[in-house]
Amino acid sequence: MYRIGKEEIEACARVINSKNLFKINDGAREVMHFEAELCEKMGVRHSILMTSGKAALISGLVGMGIGPGDEVIVPAYTYIATAIAVTAVGAIPVIADIDESLTLDPSDFESKISKYTKAVIPVHIQGFPCNMDKISEIAKKHGIYILEDACQSVGGSYKGKRLGTIGDAGAFSFNYFKIITAGEGGALMTNSREIFERALIYHDSSAIAYFGNQLDSITEEQFCGSEFRVSEFTGAILREQLKRLDSILYDLRRNKAYLLDKFDGRYSFIRSNDLLGDCGTTLAFWFDTEYEAIEFKRKADTAGYPATRPIDTGKHVYTNWTPIMNKKGAFNPAFDPFLMEANRDLNHRYTPDMCAKSLEYLKRAVYIMVDPDMDERGLNKLADALK
Question: Regarding beta strands 117-120 and 145-149, do their DSSP bridges make them parallel or antiparallel, or are they unpaired?
């Protein structure tokens, strides 16, 4: 969380005073208005606010018709929720390498495509944009869907287009650790009416037909799904947070650019697919060896500026995706995609060293987080300490 204040308090009070806490109401309709405002901000036709980024990914996959018998390619470096979302619909996650941008390697993505591949989930990790030109070209050539995981990159862009709006659908997260937040929350965005209608039904199938006019103009047949509905509090808080988004990104990018200039010629940084579109949340130092990365982290920590090696971030690295690597896709074996007959011939041959290149890159990078509220004096102090 970067910024929150009286506006969010007043938004919550507005909901309480209205006595309309449920999403469907005849009052302020905070969730509905947030969805419309998000569409306008991101330049998409449809959005659905729901409980989490993972919920948005699952709903997006359902909207694409993905299930048993299908493979979905995911990068080796992403939070485990990306891969679990694939198993949640009965499909198999196929794990591909990242490149020096720490995002999905387009070449390895293409090499992992099989006759079973139905979608790819490029992840704009830490606000770093993926190479969406190349990924889109490959996906189009092979006729597969793109579901962007933009959970860590709300508001970022690639060549002028907002991340999460370039593929067939995209997912945002609004949990406490994201650029804007309501504590929890997520959103699915798409320009596809078909994906939107299916995701709308799936994300709240127990209530969608019984409250309000949510199914007006919906042509997809109803089916059983989940319940990822949010309350008016989430919508109200996020309406205020959305107003803060551009200023947060501006200050993050300004401070990151200032530090990059300060370190010019002294340190190397990971390759960016679009430095201007990068969210600016993270200084990602790049070293020739793991030893140099470890030493830099030690010195930065000692200087009072905590650093992180992405290799040490637990569930963001595929080797630590315990239920995926152990192929435990569900508690009940009948629902476990790894045991389904439809998935028998799919690529779920996971080994700890299958993406060795990714592990090497993650060992050689070091992160220091950027503070959008740090002034020039603080930035200079940080730069001097790390020099």
Answer: parallel
- Contact partners, residue 278, CB within 8 Å, separation at least 6: 127, 128, 129, 156, 253, 256, 272
Give the list of residues 6+ apart from residue 138 with CB closer than 8 angstroms, or none.
106, 109, 110, 113
Report how far residue 347's alpha carbon sits from residue 367's, in angstroms, rounded to the nearest whole number: 32
Candidates 3, 61, 32, 38; CA nearest to 230 is 32
**Rounded distance, CA 195 to CA 178, Å?**
25
Model confidence over 224-266: pLDDT tens digits? 999 999 999 999 999 999 999 999 999 999 999 999 999 999 9
Q: What is the pTM of this model?
A: 0.97
| Token reading at 63 | 């909207």
| Cα distance between the two ends of the chain | 28
Determine the distance from the C-alpha atom of residue 122 to the mean position of all C-alpha atoms in its chain, rounded to a whole number. 9
**Can you tell me the distance from the alpha carbon of 351 to that of 361, in angstroms, rounded to the nearest whole number?**
18
Q: Which of 165, 96, 128 is nearest to 272 (CA)?
A: 128
Alpha-carbon distance of 153 to 305, in angstroms, equals: 23
Question: SS3 for 355?
Answer: coil
CA distance 34 to 204: 17
Among 224, 1, 234, 184, smallest CA distance to 81 is for: 184
| Domains, the chain, ordered by start | 6-241 (3.40.640.10)
User: What distances in angstroms separate CA 241 from CA 5, 38, 236, 248, 371, one per listed residue?
Assistant: 10, 11, 9, 10, 17
Mean pLDDT (10-residue bins), the chain, 387 residues: 97 96 94 98 98 98 98 98 98 98 98 98 98 98 98 98 98 98 98 98 93 92 96 98 98 98 96 98 98 97 97 97 98 97 96 98 98 97 94
Which two three-digit tokens encode residue 372?
């959008």
In the prediction, which pLDDT does 376 show?
97
Question: Can you name the residues that pair with 170 across neighbouring β-strands?
Answer: 148, 189
